[in-house]
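Incident log, structure service

09:12 report received: a user says their structure output differs between two submissions of the same chain.
09:20 pulled the input from the user's history:
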Amino acid sequence: MESRKRFLHILNNFKEYEAAKEKSFYINASKDEWRDNLKYLNEKINNPENKCI
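09:34 re-ran on a clean worker, output below:
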């Protein structure tokens, strides 16, 4: 649940990403690519097989 909130926060604050994408920390990607990558990471985070015991 917490990771979903983080994911939504990033999507909702995409303007800040757009403003900062020229900085080296950010990848130069379209909004759709950025969203797809975030969805992929979110799935990895929420996958029970990837959790530490």
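09:41 both user submissions now match this output. Likely a transient worker issue. Closing.
09:42 reviewer note: The chain has a mean pLDDT of 76. The chain has one domain: 2-50.
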